[in-house]
Amino acid sequence: MNDETSPAYHAGMRALQDRFDTRRLADRLDEKLARQVFSDEDRAFIESRPLFFLSTADADGQPDCSYKGGAPGFVRVTGDGELAFPHYDGNGMFRSLGNLLVNPAVALLFIDFERPNRLRVNGRASIADDDPLRASFVGAQLIVRVRAERIFPNCPRYIHRMTTVEPSPYVPRAGTTPPVPKWKRFDEFADVLARDDPARRDR
Predict the structure, then answer these.
(1) Which residues are 119's β-sheet partners?
(2) What is the pLDDT of residues 71-104, one digit of tens each?
(3) What residues are paired with 65 via a beta bridge?
(4) pLDDT of residue 201
């Protein structure tokens, strides 16, 4: 893995590694830490997270990054190298999932802010509304599955330690109906809400 490029590093990364003399360290980190199969520790960490960050790009490579939140367990490791998560009602733009329809490359970042730790997952995503997992997620509109190509932990030293005050009341839960987001009550959006949006009935 000392070539100019490698499966882990492209020419731009190599140029900066060489400038700062970190190529050897980068190669060793990839050799020792990167994997394509989730460990038991990976599974436990991912499934304990109430949030993650999702990075996608469109067909031209224009990037987008989103925060995804839910109850712990809303992301599931479904196989040795696969995870899945639900898509809940959002702002209707479908920026992340729309990107995945034209470019399945995806990156996920899982962070524990209370006990600083983080894990990256890069892979290829697919979307389905008839996925059998959908029935097991309250409020799910679609299911996203990610086939992992690189799983690797990151140094947590710059993570600011934070404490969760309370979970979001908007996260779908069995036996409850999430409140309507305040912004969907604004008059400027009233005439363009989706036909089945609860905000229509709540006005």
Answers:
(1) 110, 153
(2) 999 999 999 999 999 999 999 999 999 999 999 9
(3) 55
(4) 73
Q: Per DSSP, what are the bridge partners of residue 143?
A: 86, 128
Torsion sign across C-alpha atoms 193, 89, 102, 52: positive
Match 């363009």 to its residue by tokens.
192
The pair of structure tokens assigned to 78 is 């479904």
Q: Where are the domains of the chain?
A: 1-33, 35-193
Question: Which residue from 54, 48, 88 is spatially nearest to 72, judged by alpha carbons?
Answer: 48
Over the stretch 5-27, which tens digit does the pLDDT of each residue have? Answer: 578 999 999 999 999 999 999 99
What's the rounded Cα separation, in Å, for the pair 88 and 94?
Answer: 11
Which H/E stretch holds residue 153? strand 142-153
Residue 203's pLDDT band, with cuts at 50, 70 and 90, is low
Is this prediction's pTM over 0.90? yes
Name, in order, each residue with C-beta under 8 angstroms of 144's C-beta and a sequence gap of 6 or more. Answer: 84, 85, 86, 87, 97, 100, 125, 126, 127
Asked whether 121 and 72 are in contact (CB, 8 A), the reply is: no
Q: Which CATH superfamily is domain 35-193 in?
A: Electron Transport, Fmn-binding Protein; Chain A (2.30.110.10)
- The three-class DSSP label of residue 182 is helix
